[in-house]
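Same chain as my last thread, 168 residues:
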Amino acid sequence: MSRAWTCSRCGESHTGLPDIAFDAPHPWDGLDDEEREASDLQPDTCEIRSAEGDFFYVRGILEIPIRDFDQCLGYGVWSSLSAANFERFVELYDDPARVDEPAYTSWFGNRIPGFPDTFNLKAWVEIRDPDLRPSIVLHEQDHPLVEAARDGIDLAQAIALVEPYLHE
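reply #2:
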């Protein structure tokens, strides 16, 4: 059962925590009109063709456990794949056998407010059932987001991370 909490910004009572989702990988916002026209952003995949090169992203879920609450804080984030792994991901997109795929090496594709720069943290994309987005799992490295995903955070910190998104 989810507990209610009071928002410090609006004073309203909320039950549970919303997931936070990014509509595109971070580099998407930096594309000029020509690059954006050459690129492709879909709900679960993104191909960026830019002056810096070609980059391939998939959307997944990063979960941060909340130690004193009965749910995780979920982030809908993007993570890059090599061209070959991206092709494989797309090939197996609707195939139930995709759950047997090994995790793909990846680079985290978003900057998460409330943490030092998270863009390009080392990660894995773990493929799940076709009805579920992949899990994004961060490699062990010295970063507060890695520590949060591994060890969890307390409810007060989770609320502080969520509140700005409730009042955009």
